[in-house]
Specification:
Strand order of the largest sheet: 3-1-2-4-5-6-7-8
CATH superfamily of the largest domain: NAD(P)-binding Rossmann-like Domain
Number of helices: 11
Oligomer: single chain
Distance between the termini: 28 Å
Largest sheet: 8 strands, mixed
CATH class of the largest domain: Alpha Beta
Radius of gyration: 22 Å
Number of domains: 2
């Protein structure tokens, strides 16, 4: 009998795919679970249940564990996964490696980001050649419920999406935190600092979306010659902040590639 795994497994009954199992309940697995739970009948699998028994009855297995944990997990599967659709939201682990380790033919890699929890996620996905059109439609439906889904034709683009939108919310929160700390340093209390910074960033995002203009054009309208915004932008440029951000994304992209080799 396979050893008992210390993770959460959920079985979801779907009208299109008979059974879906979500394996792993970290931040992303929980967010997906929370998004789907009102629309699907969910049966929990307790930690001391036999994983293979649960997976045996599934048509779809969604893997939401950390990449580093996957390799140990893969060795515990004894059930035949050949005809099942495998959906992985793990960063870096290729469809080829997943197929090899699990003995599965139909594998989809999806890179969602955390805003899917509020229906505003970006989910890039890639399906290998064995995934049918109906199964691709199923992927579009599931992740379309959580925001915007984007199909890519090259698997390495999933690693690039990981670096851009997968980590993108953290980059946004990083900026938010820096501005909020500075607001407090300038004498605003925490509540007002959050209102000022949060409202500013949300308003800027809304303006960008609704006008459809490029960022550079909007910046030029805000930064008057000799003005305060120009002074701030000149300091950012002198510190090489724009290049640092691009370098940071490149570092994330390279790490995503390395995860497949670990």
């Amino acid at each position: 009998m396979a050893r008992r795994l210390e993770l959460n497994l959920f079985q979801i009954t779907s009208p299109r795919m008979k059974n879906i199992c979500i394996m792993g309940l970290g931040n992303m697995g929980q967010a997906i679970f929370d998004t789907l739970k009102d629309d699907y009948e969910i049966v929990t699998c307790l930690r001391d249940d036999d994983v293979n028994e649960k997976v045996k009855s599934c048509d779809v297995l969604l893997i939401a564990v950390k990449p580093q944990d996957f390799y140990d997990l893969a060795g515990d599967f004894t059930v035949d996964l050949d005809g099942k659709l495998i959906i992985s939201i793990m960063a870096g682990v290729s469809t080829e490696k997943i197929s090899l380790l699990l003995g599965a033919q139909k594998v989809v890699r999806v890179m969602p980001n955390l805003p899917l929890k509020v229906g505003a996620g970006i989910s890039g996905w890639y399906a290998n050649k064995n995934v049918s059109d109906d199964e691709k439609s199923f992927i579009k439906d599931i992740f379309g419920r959580m925001g915007t889904e984007i199909s890519v034709d090259e698997e390495d683009k999933i690693n690039k999406i990981t670096a851009l939108s997968g980590g993108g919310p953290a980059y946004y929160y990083y900026l938010n935190r820096a501005l909020r700390m500075k607001a407090e340093e300038l004498g605003f209390n925490e509540e007002d600092a959050r209102k000022i910074v949060g409202g500013t960033l949300q308003g800027a995002a809304k303006l960008l979306k609704e006008t459809g203009e490029c960022s550079g054009k909007i910046i030029s309208r805000i930064a008057c010659k000799g003005g305060t915004t120009e002074a701030a932008l000149m300091r950012l440029d002198s510190e090489g902040v724009e290049q640092t951000i691009m370098d940071a994304v490149e570092a994330a992209y390279k790490r995503a590639q390395e995860l497949n080799e670990d």
